[in-house]
Amino acid sequence: MPKKTIDIPILVYGATMTGIGIAIKNPEQVLLVDKRALVGHEFIDAYNLGSSKIVDVKTSFGKTLLHELLDRKILTKEGNIHLPAMPPIICKMILDSKINALMMTTITNIEKTDNGFIVSIYNNSGQKSLSVGRIIDTTSEGLLIKDKGDRIIGKSLNAALNNPNKQEEFPFDDEEIKNNPNITCQKGKLDAEIYIKLKLEISEDWAGARGKLHAFWQNRPKCLKNWQLATISSTFDYWVLYSEPGDAGNVQWLPSCAYSNPLEAFEEGVCFIKGGAEQ
Fold this sequence. Notes:
Oligomer: single chain
Structural class: alpha/beta
Distance between the termini: 39 Å
Radius of gyration: 20 Å
Largest sheet: 7 strands, mixed
């Protein structure tokens, strides 16, 4: 009996920085699918700055992104990044590279076959089934992964802060902040760009997490009395350990958030699948 035709060689779930890196190198082979409408959400929408180290990029795709971020002053040479300015850059890369992407699309079922998978997707156009050769899940939560083991080790809800007095520096060294194990504060590229992370239980739901953040802010340390809670991230910031993604015969998990920052996550995506476009 002949094998079924593979309509999609590689389905990447998650328009994450890693997912986009995989797709940009292999645009003719990859279908990029995400249930959200936003790109790079594991960093940008989670208000997750990552580390400020500059990655030693080696691929042409990584170098292009790095130079674009530096030229537009979204990223400094010291590695400080202005997250809100990133989406237009990423979206233009997707468009210019002619990546096949389906946003606001949910995977409703995956059926293993002899030579791949039958994947059911649902979006505004209705239900559709695809014959897929390989599936790579790049989401932080491992939405397609049944056995995540102990790889998800924590999560936080992050928020951006504002101070009407632009001359007042953020009190990073205040004892009430330094000695609080449940909060972490980071500075973005701009002088007044401050983010605060509130550590949560892994099982915490969205309503409970927002309640905890607001409760913390109502009783915030005195050193933060002049600061305002400007905006809250639209998704959790997950802390996931990196591990080998497993056999390509099964759904592979390559969480983008496991990398140190957006640029490294993108570069690792580009390098993940051998072959494809020239690096």
